[in-house]
Structure formats: C-alpha cells, structure tokens
Amino acid sequence: MINSKQAQQLTKTIEAYQKIIIAKHIAPDWDAQGSALGLKEIILANFPKKEVYVVGKVFNSDKNFVDEEKLNPEIIAQALLITVDVANFERIDFTFKNDVKEVFKIDHHLEVDDFASHKLVDDKAIACTQVIVQWAQACNLQVNKDAATNLYFGLITDSGRFLYNKTNQETFNCASFLMDCGINLQEIYDKLYLKKLDVEKWLHHAFGMAVFDTAYPIAYIKITLADWKDHNITEEEVKRAVSVLSGIRDIEIWFIAYESLETEKIKVSLRSRHYEINRVAVKHNGGGHMLASGAKLNNFEEIENLMVDLRKLVDNKL
C-alpha cells in the first residue's frame, strides 16, 4: 500500500509547478510507458492549465512522443521532473535530467538511488502503474479512459497477466478500478498478445536454440544478430523469445542473451519462478525485480560467468 503522506505530497508538488516533465527508464517497457502516459492524462484531467511533457524513447511504434521537441532550456529550468518506474538516476531517459528545478520519484523497485527531493515508492507493488492508480484513488483524482488504458497496459504486463508472485489484492482492486473507467479489455489484450506470423515463426525457431543445463534447472537462448536479423522482426520482438522458456516444469531460471543493434551490447532478459535473480543481475551491469531482471554483457563468452552465478544462487552460495 502506498504511503498516504507521500501521495498527498505528490499532489501538492504537482500543484506547485506549471511545467512538468515525465521521464521513464531507458529501454522502456509497457509499465514505464503506461505510467508516463497515464500520469500525464491524470494531471491534465485534474489540472488542465498545466504544461505536461513526456520524454524519452517510445516503446511501441504506434505512439509518437513529440513532447520533448517542444522543450527548451527555459522550460526545463523551471520544470518539475517526475520519474516513473526508474530506480537509478543514470537510467532516466532524459538528457537534461540535471537541469530541472526539482525531481519527484514514483516507483515500485527497491531503493537503489535516492536521487529525488520527494518520492512515492511502494516496492511491494507489482507495477509502477499500480502505485499511480492508488495515488489517484487516495487523492480522489479523475481518471479518464485514456489514462486508465495506459495504466492497465502496465499493470497487466508487469504482473504477467496476474500470474507473478507480487500480484495481490491491491493489484486486482486497481484493475477493477481501471475497468470502471471504461477501458476496452479486448482491444488491450489483442494489442498485447496477438502475434504476427513472423513473430510466431521466430519464437518456434528460438526455442530450437535453447540450451538446458544438465545439472541445474536453468535454461537460456543465445541469440546473435545473424540469428534474428532476417526474420522480419523488431528488436523488441526478439526479446519475446524469453517467454518460450517459461511454464516448463523442469526450468526454474531462464534467460535470453541477444545481440542488440541499438546498444551494440549483449542484452540479457532474465526470469525466474522462485529465485531472487536480481541479486545476480546487479553483478552483471543490470538489475530489476526479484523474478524479472535485465543485464548487459560485453560478449557472449560472459554467459558462462552469468551461469556460474546463477548456479551459486540455486545452491544458496551467492
């Protein structure tokens, strides 16, 4: 449950600023983007004279962030920066984050970097969008259909369709609240889970590349640029390969390590049913949640170092 004093402080801080910038983490997911866009809609619905800008990279191709193009040094210097779904200052997807007047942090990760003057954080929440919904409820704010739709995208994906361990009664209460705001569940689920034929073919191909540890309940897929570049898929769709290893009884930790065109690094998407894999992720230039984390490797040879730490985790020796 969110802290009521922190929730009221967020509202007071928003009221105090005319110009507000909302930033999410680099390489955003649905929770980051849904939090940013949902928060913007809530602010504008309740404080219509505010100037609100969402900045950073877009997650899905049918959205186009033009807010950042409207910014100039004068606006930035006068602005409140609200960060959503970001635990580390360096991972804020905004070039001029050091130039704003004040920073307010909304998050659901464990505290890593105390970079804000005020914060609204609940590390027991399954999604940052859950924190934002509860803030709106606590402060009796209007939530329109557009805001609710964006927030539901984050809630449903970060909870794995309500399957992940941190899903609780509050999560379902938030979902019920958003449904009451008029969201179209069928449109949301179709957008999230209907796949192109090329993506479905890719997922079957990726499963065929899986490597299964013979002594531990660990599996992974190594994906080079050559493995995916001719499959008519985006880099975001490459990452969906991590899902093909979930739901296998014999596998308790799984990951993909793929060659990224965007970063020219080896990016890792790491998942677990029970083990606290974020403890391993932080040792490999990453972090995240207990059961869903990310990391970065310099080359594919470092997969073995990652495997060593994952085996130690299973053996309770990390």
Automatic annotation (TrEMBL):
GO terms for molecular function: nucleic acid binding. InterPro entries: DDH_dom, DHH_sf, DHHA1_dom, Oligoribo/pAp-PDE_c-di-AMP_PDE. It holds the Pfam family DHH. Residues 19-154 form the DDH domain. Residues 223-310 form the DHHA1 domain. PANTHER family: BIFUNCTIONAL OLIGORIBONUCLEASE AND PAP PHOSPHATASE NRNA. This is Bifunctional oligoribonuclease and PAP phosphatase NrnA.
